[in-house]
Amino acid sequence: MLTVILVVIHVFVSLFLILVVLLQQGKGADLAGAFGGGGSQTAFGARGATTLLHKLTQYFFVAFVATSLTLAILQARPRGSVMSGRPAPATPAPAKK
After folding, report:
1. Whose CA, among 9, 21, 44, 83, lies 20 to 30 Å from 50?
2. Which one, of 97, 13, 12, 2, lies nearest residue 60 by Cα?
3. pLDDT at residue 79 above 70?
């Protein structure tokens, strides 16, 4: 049950991360950056204020890594077989001649 809940959370976080990353504008996304002009200014220049999307990306990335690691640990644990609780089938006695 815990694994199912974590998978649902992991899928939600993954989809949200995809949407948030696609909505963000890159550093060199202006017209000059597209043709190579002003690349040193935008790539190594001062950063602007941290936006809400940037903060959400950070938090959801941490949640993504945490759910990924938790799911990997839960799946690596040894579990019993589905047949482990059942009694062994009786073998027929050999026929006498």
Report:
1. 9
2. 13
3. yes
**Does 47 have pLDDT greater than 60?**
yes
Q: What is the pLDDT of residue 19?
A: 92
Each domain of the chain, given as residue ranges in start order, spans 1-22+53-75
3-state secondary structure of 40: helix
Nearest CA to 13 out of 71, 62, 74 is that of 62
Give dist(CA 33, CA 58) in Å, integer.
25
User: Are the C-beta atoms of 20 and 60 separated by less than 8 Å?
Assistant: yes
Angle subtended at Cα 95 by Cα 94 and Cα 97, rounded to the nearest 5 degrees: 130
**Where is pLDDT greater, at 53 or 6?**
6
pTM of the model: 0.61
